[in-house]
Amino acid sequence: MSSSPALATDALFAALAKHPRVTAGDGHPMPDRCRVEDLFDWEAVAKETKMSREALLDATFGPGPRRAGLLRTRRGTAQWPLTEEGRRQLGVLVIPDFVQEDEETKILGDFFDSETGAGLPWEEREGGGYHASFGPTFIPKSGYKVDKSKAFTELPSALDSIRSRLQRLLRFDDFDADTVNDAGVAESLRRYAMSAATRGGRQGALSQAFVQRYELDGDEMTCNRKQALGMHFDSRNANAEVVIGLSLGEDQGHIFFSRSGPHKGQPFPLSLAKALEERGDGILVELPRRALYMFYGFARYHLRHGVPWHHDAARGGYRRVTVTLRSVPRPMPTAAPAAKRRRKDGEDAKQRRLMEMLQSFAQPLEKAAPLIDLTD
Ligand SMILES: O=C(O)CCC(=O)C(=O)O
């Protein structure tokens, strides 16, 4: 077997993505902490690429024993800064203008309904800022475990048409190229996504939405927090592989991906994200207004992500809204235990007899229409 690492980067990443050891959505739990060596079935990748395990590790994460890491190794090549294609290989894809202007107006109008003052049920975000959550209810401090005793709530209807376009993108349906920019989503996911469901266009429905507000107000400290979201992983088990974000209301939006980057959960400035990217320690993605981004593969399972702050409090007048959509499986309805069901059937029969009796009293007075409709 050759140990030459002379494999094109796209072929290397395609081969790795085909043989992950564990991924969400395939019925395998993916541990939140996982050593690089445990990420892939190196035997299978070696067989496919005809490279040795050691050469594969060197090509992906840099030569041992102290490997530089995935991004620093990319930086050491001519492919840094990453091209659009380079980003897709690592699992980040941006579609500018995915949201149309009238859709954005409708969404933001509904989210901040100035006529009724209702808008969304905003809650304070841990660490600062506001968010609203739709779909599943999560058990507090459980790492986003879905509370199976609670029904999923409806997602805001203003998102309906975008969600249905996204569902079609994830199913790899054909689009009319004049109306929808499919941005090569199908090719990217077929090649670089890691779960069988997502690679096969079978990722589940987008059943969860987090809406986040990033805005300028308050003193320096709270203002920075309100514009930022600290680095974190999204649960690898509670939801399927592709996570999708929409950036609305402002032109200067960002999302930053890194493994070694700013401290977990802490707000961090854009200048730090830029410096880290220059060193090969992150991927900084600029998001114009109405752009969509999606992440999968390496970016989803190997890198953390977060949102940097960048304006100082004195400037005012910045309010960006993002919508993050995920596929969270709905819990299966559990069959009512037999005893409970028998009791309920008995109660229903009793109720029906009572209703019939009441109705018989009512008959002489209300012949045409019964007082109580028992058909339901
Ligand atoms: O607002 C964003 O674009 C990122 C949101 C995010 O990372 C999350 O909801 O986990």
TrEMBL record:
Gene3D superfamilies: Alpha-ketoglutarate-dependent dioxygenase AlkB-like (2.60.120.590). InterPro entries: AlkB-like_sf, ALKBH4. Residues 329-352 are annotated as: Disordered. One of its GO terms (biological process) is demethylation. GO terms for molecular function: demethylase activity; oxidoreductase activity. PANTHER family: 2-OXOGLUTARATE AND FE-DEPENDENT OXYGENASE FAMILY PROTEIN, OXYGENASE-RELATED. This is Glucose-6-phosphate dehydrogenase (NADP(+)). It comes from Cladocopium goreaui.
